Amino acid sequence: MRNAFVNTLIDCARQDPAVALLMAEVGFSVVEPFEKEFPSRFYNTGIAEQNLVLTAAGMALEGMRPVAYSMSAFLASRAFELIKVSVCYQDLPVVLASIGTGLSYSELGATHHATEESALMRALPNLNVFFPADGAELSEALRFALRAEHPSYISFPKLPDKPLPAHPFEMGKAVRYRDGGDGAVLAIGHSVVEALAAAQALEQQGIRLSVYGFHIVKPFDRSAVLEACATGSLFVVDEHQQCAGIAGEAAKAVLEGGKTLRHFCDYSIPDCFSDHVARYAQMQEEYGLSAARLAQRIGETLGGGR
């Protein structure tokens, strides 16, 4: 997905001389093509995310279209006050691009996991928040953000790109990947990949699921949640903390929409730090977010209550 990011950014920079890339000593082997083609529009602020964001804000005030790039675990947390005050409060068209969403920096341990980023970024006014599921969604989100008059936060995993079925990009709209009347999975970002695989496995057991992908979580597509309620059971899959997570947003939409469900399940990260180092696939399995574990959990729920 990093290749989709830098290739799209280069294409946008060729069309718009205001586009610039800033990075905080992160992204070597990825950012060099941009640096080589646009040396006067490339800046390394060092390992200092606050400086990264403040510099980007200053450039936006001067009419530039800066993209501030760093790791998810550090950009959202270390620079939170600067994002809040210097970018969002002033409603500047800064693009905050982060790599390593959720657990994808798995082997680097809890300090490099970014399970809290969704709650932090969604709490800020004026900020659009994107969690693209594949390279195509990342490309479209970046193109949109560089045209927008408001700040954007785009976070994607440090994982190989697994292309999903093609679909149009609509701001504030979820994507319905498949239809099924036994339940609906609301998957955030890269979790769509596992959700689709789980739905395919469950179909072999006679359980047919709808799968919705939310690559845009702010603004949040409440209409998709209400539409999914027609199945009677909702399963939210999100590689972020349950605390202030998307499942709470979905539950609020259900209640305010006056919908009644048989099941509502929140499959996300519990209120804890990982106490060991493991590969990404192992961590997905541990937290019940792999395709196999999702199929098991959903199957057990629907098998007893359909």
Structure in words:
There is one protein chain. The chain is an alpha/beta fold and 306 residues long. It contains 12 helices and 12 strands. The strands form 2 sheets. It has a 7-stranded mixed beta sheet, sandwiched between helices. Strand 1, helix 2 (32-37) and strand 2 form a beta-alpha-beta unit. The longest helix is centred in the first third of the chain and has 14 residues, at 2-15. The model has no long low-confidence stretch (mean pLDDT 96).
Question: Layout of helices and strands, plus pairs?
Answer:
Blueprint: H1 2-15, E1 19-23, H2 32-37, E2 42-44, H3 49-61, E3 65-71, H4 72-78, H5 80-88, E4 95-99, H6 117-122, E5 128-130, H7 135-147, E6 152-156, E7 175-178, E8 183-188, H8 191-203, E9 209-214, E10 216-218, H9 222-228, E11 233-241, H10 246-256, E12 263-269, H11 280-286, H12 291-303
Parallel strand pairs: 1-2, 1-3, 3-4, 4-6, 5-6, 8-9, 8-11, 11-12
Antiparallel strand pairs: 5-10, 7-9
Helix pairs in contact: 1-7, 3-5, 8-12, 9-10
Strand line-up in the sheet with most strands: 2-1-3-4-6-5-10
Q: Spans of 5+ residues with little confidence (pLDDT < 50)?
A: none
What is the string of SSEs from the N terminus onward?
A: HEHEHEHHEHEHEEEHEEHEHEHH
What does the oligomeric state look like here?
single chain
Kindly name the structural category: alpha/beta
Mean pLDDT: 96
| Strand percentage | 15-25%
Total helical segments:
12
The main pleated sheet reads as: 7 strands, mixed
Question: From the alpha-carbon coordinates, what is the Rg to the nearest angstrom?
Answer: 19 Å
Shape: globular
The N- and C-terminal alpha carbons lie at a distance of: 38 Å
How many strand segments? 12
Helical content (DSSP H or I, runs of 4+):
25-40%
